[in-house]
Amino acid sequence: MSAPIIDSLPLPPHSPEAEHALLGALLANPESFHLIEPPLEPSDFYNYANRLIYQAIFSLASQGKPADVLTVSDLLREIGNEKETGGLEYLNRLTESYASAANLSEYARIVKDKALKRNLISKLAQLEAEVNSDRGASSEDLLDRVQSEFLKMGLGKNKDASSFESSGSILDGVIDEMRSIADSPTEIRGCESGIEQLDDVTRGFRPGQLVVIAARPGIGKTAFALQVARRTAVRQKKPVAIFALEMTKNEVLKRMLSSESEVEMESIDGAQMTDTQWSRIYQAQEVLSKAPIFVDSSSELTLMRIKTKLRQLAAQVGNIGLVVVDYLQLLEQEDENASADLRSIQIGVLSRGLKLLAKELNAPVLLLSQLNRQVENRPNHTPLLSDLRESGSIEQDADMVLLLYSKAKFGQEQGDSRTIYMDLAKHRNGRLEVFSTIFKGEIQCFEELNAWNQ
Question: Where are the transmembrane segments (predicted)?
Protein backbone atom coordinates (compact mmCIF):
# COMPACT_ATOMS: atom_id res chain seq x y z
CA MET A 1 0.00 0.00 0.00
CA SER A 2 1.41 3.40 -0.97
CA ALA A 3 2.26 5.92 1.70
CA PRO A 4 -0.22 8.74 2.38
CA ILE A 5 0.27 11.75 0.15
CA ILE A 6 1.03 13.98 3.14
CA ASP A 7 4.06 11.83 4.00
CA SER A 8 5.56 12.50 0.57
CA LEU A 9 5.40 16.28 0.90
CA PRO A 10 8.84 17.86 1.47
CA LEU A 11 9.53 19.51 4.81
CA PRO A 12 10.19 23.27 4.85
CA PRO A 13 13.89 24.20 4.63
CA HIS A 14 15.67 23.67 7.95
CA SER A 15 18.89 22.28 9.38
CA PRO A 16 18.57 20.28 12.62
CA GLU A 17 22.35 19.92 12.73
CA ALA A 18 23.00 23.68 12.57
CA GLU A 19 20.31 24.42 15.16
CA HIS A 20 21.73 21.79 17.55
CA ALA A 21 25.33 22.95 17.04
CA LEU A 22 24.41 26.61 17.55
CA LEU A 23 22.46 26.01 20.76
CA GLY A 24 25.13 23.66 22.08
CA ALA A 25 27.87 26.24 21.47
CA LEU A 26 25.85 28.97 23.21
CA LEU A 27 25.08 26.80 26.24
CA ALA A 28 28.70 25.70 26.58
CA ASN A 29 30.05 29.22 26.01
CA PRO A 30 27.45 31.74 27.33
CA GLU A 31 29.77 34.69 26.71
CA SER A 32 29.64 34.03 22.95
CA PHE A 33 25.97 35.05 22.58
CA HIS A 34 26.80 38.62 21.53
CA LEU A 35 29.21 37.34 18.88
CA ILE A 36 26.43 35.83 16.77
CA GLU A 37 26.48 37.23 13.24
CA PRO A 38 23.99 37.52 11.69
CA PRO A 39 21.74 38.20 14.70
CA LEU A 40 18.96 35.66 15.13
CA GLU A 41 15.35 35.79 16.29
CA PRO A 42 13.68 32.86 18.08
CA SER A 43 11.37 32.51 15.06
CA ASP A 44 14.43 31.66 12.92
CA PHE A 45 14.51 28.19 14.50
CA TYR A 46 12.36 25.55 12.80
CA ASN A 47 12.21 23.08 15.70
CA TYR A 48 9.74 24.33 18.33
CA ALA A 49 11.82 23.07 21.28
CA ASN A 50 14.92 24.78 19.86
CA ARG A 51 12.93 27.97 19.43
CA LEU A 52 11.88 27.97 23.09
CA ILE A 53 15.44 27.25 24.23
CA TYR A 54 16.87 30.09 22.16
CA GLN A 55 14.15 32.39 23.53
CA ALA A 56 15.29 31.52 27.06
CA ILE A 57 18.97 32.12 26.15
CA PHE A 58 18.01 35.41 24.50
CA SER A 59 16.02 36.51 27.56
CA LEU A 60 18.84 35.75 30.00
CA ALA A 61 21.54 37.33 27.83
CA SER A 62 19.43 40.49 27.37
CA GLN A 63 19.32 40.85 31.16
CA GLY A 64 23.08 40.42 31.43
CA LYS A 65 22.73 37.02 33.07
CA PRO A 66 24.72 33.90 32.11
CA ALA A 67 22.79 31.49 29.88
CA ASP A 68 24.28 28.08 30.60
CA VAL A 69 22.62 24.68 30.90
CA LEU A 70 21.52 25.18 34.51
CA THR A 71 20.20 28.76 34.21
CA VAL A 72 18.36 27.99 30.97
CA SER A 73 16.88 24.81 32.44
CA ASP A 74 15.74 26.75 35.52
CA LEU A 75 14.10 29.46 33.39
CA LEU A 76 12.32 26.92 31.17
CA ARG A 77 10.98 25.17 34.28
CA GLU A 78 9.89 28.50 35.77
CA ILE A 79 7.88 29.56 32.71
CA GLY A 80 6.37 26.10 32.17
CA ASN A 81 8.31 25.09 29.04
CA GLU A 82 10.44 22.30 30.51
CA LYS A 83 8.30 19.48 29.10
CA GLU A 84 8.10 20.97 25.58
CA THR A 85 11.89 21.31 25.39
CA GLY A 86 12.92 17.94 26.82
CA GLY A 87 14.28 19.41 30.03
CA LEU A 88 17.79 19.12 31.37
CA GLU A 89 18.45 15.88 29.49
CA TYR A 90 18.00 17.52 26.05
CA LEU A 91 20.09 20.56 27.06
CA ASN A 92 22.96 18.30 28.11
CA ARG A 93 22.79 16.42 24.79
CA LEU A 94 23.07 19.72 22.95
CA THR A 95 26.28 20.70 24.76
CA GLU A 96 27.77 17.25 24.18
CA SER A 97 27.12 17.32 20.43
CA TYR A 98 28.41 20.77 19.43
CA ALA A 99 31.66 20.95 17.49
CA SER A 100 33.26 24.35 18.20
CA ALA A 101 32.23 27.84 19.26
CA ALA A 102 34.64 29.12 16.62
CA ASN A 103 32.05 28.08 14.00
CA LEU A 104 29.23 29.99 15.71
CA SER A 105 28.72 32.50 12.89
CA GLU A 106 28.59 29.73 10.29
CA TYR A 107 25.92 27.90 12.31
CA ALA A 108 23.97 31.19 12.60
CA ARG A 109 24.29 31.84 8.87
CA ILE A 110 22.82 28.42 8.04
CA VAL A 111 19.94 28.85 10.49
CA LYS A 112 19.20 32.34 9.13
CA ASP A 113 19.38 31.14 5.53
CA LYS A 114 16.86 28.34 6.17
CA ALA A 115 14.55 30.77 8.01
CA LEU A 116 14.68 33.22 5.11
CA LYS A 117 13.78 30.45 2.65
CA ARG A 118 10.79 29.43 4.80
CA ASN A 119 9.74 33.06 4.93
CA LEU A 120 9.97 33.30 1.14
CA ILE A 121 7.78 30.23 0.76
CA SER A 122 5.25 31.74 3.16
CA LYS A 123 5.20 35.11 1.36
CA LEU A 124 4.75 33.39 -2.02
CA ALA A 125 1.87 31.33 -0.63
CA GLN A 126 0.22 34.49 0.69
CA LEU A 127 0.63 36.17 -2.69
CA GLU A 128 -0.84 33.16 -4.49
CA ALA A 129 -3.82 33.20 -2.13
CA GLU A 130 -4.38 36.93 -2.74
CA VAL A 131 -4.14 36.49 -6.52
CA ASN A 132 -6.67 33.66 -6.47
CA SER A 133 -9.03 35.42 -4.05
CA ASP A 134 -9.89 38.13 -6.62
CA ARG A 135 -10.62 40.68 -3.89
CA GLY A 136 -10.12 43.62 -6.18
CA ALA A 137 -6.39 44.27 -5.68
CA SER A 138 -4.70 45.04 -8.99
CA SER A 139 -1.70 43.11 -10.23
CA GLU A 140 0.43 46.25 -9.82
CA ASP A 141 -0.65 46.58 -6.17
CA LEU A 142 0.27 42.95 -5.54
CA LEU A 143 3.65 43.33 -7.27
CA ASP A 144 4.37 46.49 -5.28
CA ARG A 145 3.58 44.75 -2.00
CA VAL A 146 5.64 41.65 -2.69
CA GLN A 147 8.63 43.70 -3.92
CA SER A 148 8.57 45.72 -0.71
CA GLU A 149 8.38 42.62 1.46
CA PHE A 150 11.13 40.80 -0.41
CA LEU A 151 13.43 43.84 -0.27
CA LYS A 152 13.01 44.02 3.50
CA MET A 153 13.82 40.33 3.78
CA GLY A 154 16.84 40.64 1.50
CA LEU A 155 18.30 43.54 3.48
CA GLY A 156 17.70 41.81 6.78
CA LYS A 157 14.87 44.12 7.78
CA ASN A 158 12.76 41.53 9.49
CA LYS A 159 10.95 43.96 11.73
CA ASP A 160 8.21 46.24 10.48
CA ALA A 161 9.64 49.72 10.14
CA SER A 162 6.44 51.13 11.65
CA SER A 163 6.42 48.83 14.71
CA PHE A 164 6.16 50.38 18.16
CA GLU A 165 9.30 51.33 20.05
CA SER A 166 9.45 52.50 23.64
CA SER A 167 10.11 56.15 24.44
CA GLY A 168 13.24 55.17 26.37
CA SER A 169 14.75 53.42 23.39
CA ILE A 170 13.86 56.27 21.03
CA LEU A 171 15.22 58.91 23.41
CA ASP A 172 18.52 57.06 23.72
CA GLY A 173 18.98 57.54 19.98
CA VAL A 174 17.80 61.16 20.13
CA ILE A 175 20.23 62.06 22.91
CA ASP A 176 23.09 60.27 21.13
CA GLU A 177 22.35 62.29 18.00
CA MET A 178 22.19 65.54 20.00
CA ARG A 179 25.55 64.79 21.64
CA SER A 180 27.08 64.03 18.26
CA ILE A 181 25.83 67.36 16.89
CA ALA A 182 27.09 69.20 19.99
CA ASP A 183 30.54 67.68 19.53
CA SER A 184 30.64 68.74 15.84
CA PRO A 185 28.23 71.69 15.55
CA THR A 186 29.37 72.73 12.07
CA GLU A 187 29.13 69.26 10.52
CA ILE A 188 26.42 68.84 7.88
CA ARG A 189 24.51 65.63 8.63
CA GLY A 190 22.68 65.22 5.35
CA CYS A 191 23.34 65.78 1.65
CA GLU A 192 25.08 69.10 1.03
CA SER A 193 23.86 71.68 -1.47
CA GLY A 194 27.09 73.66 -1.73
CA ILE A 195 25.23 76.78 -0.54
CA GLU A 196 26.73 77.22 2.93
CA GLN A 197 24.00 79.44 4.37
CA LEU A 198 21.30 77.03 3.17
CA ASP A 199 23.16 74.02 4.58
CA ASP A 200 23.61 75.80 7.92
CA VAL A 201 19.84 76.19 8.22
CA THR A 202 18.76 72.76 6.93
CA ARG A 203 21.78 70.76 8.20
CA GLY A 204 21.63 69.07 4.80
CA PHE A 205 18.89 67.01 3.18
CA ARG A 206 18.45 64.03 5.48
CA PRO A 207 17.22 60.42 5.20
CA GLY A 208 13.46 60.06 4.90
CA GLN A 209 12.87 63.65 3.81
CA LEU A 210 10.92 64.72 0.72
CA VAL A 211 12.46 67.97 -0.54
CA VAL A 212 10.58 69.79 -3.29
CA ILE A 213 12.56 72.16 -5.54
CA ALA A 214 10.19 74.28 -7.61
CA ALA A 215 10.70 76.99 -10.22
CA ARG A 216 9.55 78.26 -13.58
CA PRO A 217 11.45 76.88 -16.62
CA GLY A 218 14.98 78.18 -17.17
CA ILE A 219 15.69 79.22 -13.58
CA GLY A 220 18.06 76.33 -12.79
CA LYS A 221 16.19 73.81 -10.65
CA THR A 222 17.70 70.84 -12.51
CA ALA A 223 21.20 72.32 -12.24
CA PHE A 224 20.75 72.78 -8.49
CA ALA A 225 19.48 69.22 -8.01
CA LEU A 226 22.41 67.81 -10.02
CA GLN A 227 24.79 69.91 -7.93
CA VAL A 228 23.44 68.26 -4.76
CA ALA A 229 23.64 64.84 -6.42
CA ARG A 230 27.23 65.36 -7.58
CA ARG A 231 28.43 66.54 -4.17
CA THR A 232 26.65 63.64 -2.45
CA ALA A 233 28.25 61.03 -4.68
CA VAL A 234 31.72 62.59 -5.08
CA ARG A 235 32.34 64.10 -1.65
CA GLN A 236 30.22 61.91 0.62
CA LYS A 237 30.62 58.70 -1.42
CA LYS A 238 26.90 57.91 -1.15
CA PRO A 239 25.03 56.17 -3.99
CA VAL A 240 22.77 58.58 -5.91
CA ALA A 241 19.83 57.63 -8.15
CA ILE A 242 18.69 60.19 -10.74
CA PHE A 243 15.46 59.87 -12.72
CA ALA A 244 15.80 62.25 -15.67
CA LEU A 245 12.42 62.43 -17.37
CA GLU A 246 13.27 65.51 -19.43
CA MET A 247 16.88 64.83 -20.45
CA THR A 248 18.93 61.93 -21.78
CA LYS A 249 21.59 60.20 -19.70
CA ASN A 250 24.27 61.86 -21.82
CA GLU A 251 22.83 65.32 -21.18
CA VAL A 252 22.82 64.68 -17.42
CA LEU A 253 26.46 63.63 -17.40
CA LYS A 254 27.50 66.48 -19.68
CA ARG A 255 26.09 68.91 -17.14
CA MET A 256 27.95 67.16 -14.35
CA LEU A 257 31.16 67.20 -16.43
CA SER A 258 30.75 70.93 -16.92
CA SER A 259 30.24 71.74 -13.25
CA GLU A 260 32.99 69.35 -12.06
CA SER A 261 35.57 70.57 -14.63
CA GLU A 262 34.34 74.19 -14.81
CA VAL A 263 34.44 73.94 -18.60
CA GLU A 264 31.54 75.79 -20.24
CA MET A 265 28.61 73.76 -21.57
CA GLU A 266 28.96 75.47 -24.96
CA SER A 267 32.52 74.18 -25.30
CA ILE A 268 31.50 70.68 -24.23
CA ASP A 269 28.58 70.54 -26.67
CA GLY A 270 30.76 71.72 -29.54
CA ALA A 271 33.77 69.65 -28.40
CA GLN A 272 35.96 72.60 -29.34
CA MET A 273 38.32 72.96 -26.40
CA THR A 274 41.87 73.92 -25.57
CA ASP A 275 44.37 71.38 -24.29
CA THR A 276 43.87 72.76 -20.78
CA GLN A 277 40.12 72.30 -21.04
CA TRP A 278 40.51 68.75 -22.32
CA SER A 279 42.80 68.01 -19.38
CA ARG A 280 40.15 69.28 -16.94
CA ILE A 281 37.49 67.22 -18.72
CA TYR A 282 39.56 64.03 -18.37
CA GLN A 283 40.16 64.76 -14.68
CA ALA A 284 36.43 65.32 -14.16
CA GLN A 285 35.68 62.10 -16.05
CA GLU A 286 37.91 60.16 -13.68
CA VAL A 287 36.22 61.68 -10.61
CA LEU A 288 32.68 61.15 -11.86
CA SER A 289 33.37 57.63 -13.16
CA LYS A 290 34.39 56.54 -9.66
CA ALA A 291 31.38 58.21 -8.02
CA PRO A 292 28.32 56.02 -7.32
CA ILE A 293 25.96 57.92 -9.65
CA PHE A 294 23.16 55.99 -11.38
CA VAL A 295 21.01 57.66 -14.06
CA ASP A 296 17.71 56.44 -15.49
CA SER A 297 16.18 58.40 -18.37
CA SER A 298 13.36 55.97 -19.16
CA SER A 299 10.22 57.45 -20.64
CA GLU A 300 6.73 56.82 -19.27
CA LEU A 301 7.90 56.39 -15.70
CA THR A 302 5.22 55.72 -13.08
CA LEU A 303 5.49 55.71 -9.30
CA MET A 304 5.45 51.93 -9.26
CA ARG A 305 8.29 51.71 -11.81
CA ILE A 306 10.35 54.15 -9.77
CA LYS A 307 9.77 52.04 -6.65
CA THR A 308 10.77 48.88 -8.49
CA LYS A 309 13.94 50.40 -9.95
CA LEU A 310 15.02 51.86 -6.61
CA ARG A 311 14.42 48.60 -4.77
CA GLN A 312 16.49 46.77 -7.36
CA LEU A 313 19.27 49.36 -7.06
CA ALA A 314 19.20 49.13 -3.25
CA ALA A 315 19.57 45.37 -3.49
CA GLN A 316 22.70 45.91 -5.65
CA VAL A 317 24.46 48.79 -3.89
CA GLY A 318 23.02 48.79 -0.37
CA ASN A 319 21.70 51.98 1.17
CA ILE A 320 20.89 54.71 -1.36
CA GLY A 321 22.15 58.14 -0.27
CA LEU A 322 19.95 60.36 -2.44
CA VAL A 323 17.16 60.14 -5.02
CA VAL A 324 16.46 62.87 -7.60
CA VAL A 325 13.21 62.92 -9.62
CA ASP A 326 13.19 65.49 -12.45
CA TYR A 327 10.37 66.33 -12.56
CA LEU A 328 6.99 65.61 -10.92
CA GLN A 329 4.62 66.73 -13.68
CA LEU A 330 6.32 64.44 -16.23
CA LEU A 331 5.55 61.29 -14.26
CA GLU A 332 2.92 59.12 -15.91
CA GLN A 333 -0.43 58.56 -14.24
CA GLU A 334 -0.91 55.00 -13.02
CA ASP A 335 -4.41 55.12 -14.51
CA GLU A 336 -3.99 56.13 -18.13
CA ASN A 337 -7.76 56.57 -18.48
CA ALA A 338 -8.01 59.13 -15.67
CA SER A 339 -9.55 62.43 -16.76
CA ALA A 340 -7.63 65.69 -16.81
CA ASP A 341 -9.77 66.90 -13.89
CA LEU A 342 -8.22 64.20 -11.73
CA ARG A 343 -4.63 65.20 -12.54
CA SER A 344 -4.19 67.23 -9.32
CA ILE A 345 -5.37 64.22 -7.33
CA GLN A 346 -2.92 62.02 -9.22
CA ILE A 347 -0.10 64.48 -8.45
CA GLY A 348 -1.05 64.27 -4.77
CA VAL A 349 -0.87 60.48 -4.92
CA LEU A 350 2.57 60.70 -6.54
CA SER A 351 3.96 63.11 -3.97
CA ARG A 352 2.61 61.03 -1.10
CA GLY A 353 4.04 57.87 -2.63
CA LEU A 354 7.48 59.47 -2.99
CA LYS A 355 7.40 60.62 0.64
CA LEU A 356 6.63 57.06 1.77
CA LEU A 357 9.38 55.78 -0.51
CA ALA A 358 11.86 58.20 1.10
CA LYS A 359 10.99 56.69 4.48
CA GLU A 360 11.17 53.12 3.18
CA LEU A 361 14.61 53.63 1.62
CA ASN A 362 15.77 55.90 4.46
CA ALA A 363 17.07 58.36 1.87
CA PRO A 364 16.22 61.97 0.97
CA VAL A 365 14.21 62.42 -2.23
CA LEU A 366 14.70 65.64 -4.21
CA LEU A 367 11.49 66.12 -6.17
CA LEU A 368 11.57 68.82 -8.83
CA SER A 369 8.31 70.56 -9.72
CA GLN A 370 7.04 73.26 -12.02
CA LEU A 371 5.49 76.48 -10.73
CA ASN A 372 2.36 77.65 -12.54
CA ARG A 373 2.19 80.80 -14.67
CA GLN A 374 0.48 82.85 -11.97
CA VAL A 375 3.86 83.83 -10.55
CA GLU A 376 4.70 85.64 -13.82
CA ASN A 377 1.45 87.62 -13.69
CA ARG A 378 1.97 88.74 -10.10
CA PRO A 379 3.35 92.33 -9.75
CA ASN A 380 6.41 91.33 -7.69
CA HIS A 381 6.89 87.98 -9.51
CA THR A 382 7.73 86.29 -6.20
CA PRO A 383 6.44 82.69 -6.01
CA LEU A 384 4.26 81.32 -3.23
CA LEU A 385 3.59 77.77 -2.09
CA SER A 386 0.19 78.04 -3.76
CA ASP A 387 2.01 78.42 -7.10
CA LEU A 388 3.05 74.77 -7.08
CA ARG A 389 1.55 73.50 -10.31
CA GLU A 390 -1.30 70.99 -9.78
CA SER A 391 -0.26 71.25 -6.17
CA GLY A 392 -2.55 68.59 -4.69
CA SER A 393 -0.83 67.59 -1.46
CA ILE A 394 2.74 68.46 -2.48
CA GLU A 395 3.01 71.16 0.18
CA GLN A 396 1.57 68.83 2.81
CA ASP A 397 3.83 65.87 1.99
CA ALA A 398 7.10 67.80 1.64
CA ASP A 399 9.48 68.26 4.55
CA MET A 400 11.06 71.21 2.73
CA VAL A 401 10.03 73.34 -0.23
CA LEU A 402 12.60 75.51 -2.03
CA LEU A 403 11.17 78.06 -4.46
CA LEU A 404 13.77 79.37 -6.95
CA TYR A 405 13.14 82.68 -8.74
CA SER A 406 14.82 85.63 -10.45
CA LYS A 407 13.96 89.31 -10.06
CA ALA A 408 16.36 90.48 -12.76
CA LYS A 409 14.47 88.40 -15.32
CA PHE A 410 11.52 90.77 -14.95
CA GLY A 411 13.61 93.96 -14.72
CA GLN A 412 12.90 94.37 -11.03
CA GLU A 413 16.50 94.39 -9.86
CA GLN A 414 19.73 96.02 -10.94
CA GLY A 415 23.08 94.30 -10.66
CA ASP A 416 24.11 90.77 -11.60
CA SER A 417 21.40 89.23 -13.80
CA ARG A 418 22.52 85.77 -12.66
CA THR A 419 21.18 86.31 -9.13
CA ILE A 420 18.75 83.55 -8.18
CA TYR A 421 16.84 83.62 -4.91
CA MET A 422 16.14 80.40 -3.03
CA ASP A 423 13.11 80.79 -0.79
CA LEU A 424 12.96 78.06 1.87
CA ALA A 425 9.17 78.41 1.97
CA LYS A 426 8.55 75.28 4.04
CA HIS A 427 10.88 73.74 6.59
CA ARG A 428 9.24 71.18 8.84
CA ASN A 429 12.06 71.21 11.38
CA GLY A 430 13.44 74.73 11.25
CA ARG A 431 13.17 78.35 10.30
CA LEU A 432 12.23 79.85 6.94
CA GLU A 433 14.68 82.05 5.06
CA VAL A 434 15.51 83.43 1.61
CA PHE A 435 19.05 82.90 0.25
CA SER A 436 20.77 84.86 -2.51
CA THR A 437 22.85 82.86 -4.98
CA ILE A 438 24.65 83.27 -8.28
CA PHE A 439 23.69 80.77 -11.00
CA LYS A 440 26.64 80.29 -13.34
CA GLY A 441 24.58 78.72 -16.10
CA GLU A 442 27.56 78.32 -18.40
CA ILE A 443 28.94 75.63 -16.05
CA GLN A 444 25.62 74.61 -14.39
CA CYS A 445 26.73 75.66 -10.92
CA PHE A 446 25.23 77.63 -8.03
CA GLU A 447 27.37 79.69 -5.67
CA GLU A 448 26.58 81.93 -2.73
CA LEU A 449 26.22 85.60 -3.62
CA ASN A 450 28.48 86.61 -0.72
CA ALA A 451 31.20 84.21 -1.85
CA TRP A 452 30.99 85.64 -5.39
CA ASN A 453 31.25 89.25 -4.16
CA GLN A 454 34.33 88.42 -2.14
Answer: none
